[in-house]
Design brief:
This protein is α/β, with parallel strands linked by helices. It has two domains: about 1-30; about 40-140, 3-Layer(aba) Sandwich (Glutaredoxin). The chain is about 50% helix and about 20% strand. It has five helices and five strands; from the N terminus they run αβαβαβαββα. It has a five-stranded mixed beta sheet. Strand 4 and strand 5 (about 120-125) form a beta hairpin. The relative contact order is 0.16.
Length: about 140
Amino acid sequence: MNYYFWIPIGILVVLLVAALYKRYRLFKNLENAPENKKVIKLTDASFQKITSKGISLIDFWAPWCAPCKILGPTINELADEYGDRMNICKMNVDENRKTSTELKIRGIPTVIIMRDGEIVGHFVGVKPKFVYAKALKELQ
């Protein structure tokens, strides 16, 4: 039997296992990410009151959504930078279906930017931090 045939296959298997382990560790660490006290947790009851005045960035997410977990640290960084001047919020779509249905949230993560209760920005999927920061700076 030709052993040279099995060497590339063995290398591919090792690389695949390493990539899967790296992804596993990434998601495991994201689950244990600390909560930022500047991020406002919205509910169906509090949504209108908090977003009706000023500028608000709202992250619509779900606990089972892997891209939402990836976006979480970005939202925390935005809260550190902009949390004193505007509302940086998160809303769990599984627990607050009324608002997410009214706003026609079809995919998560979805980030909506509102000014005085009106939607002025809408992003679906994970975007780099500078995309959100640019949109927020334009509104200030």
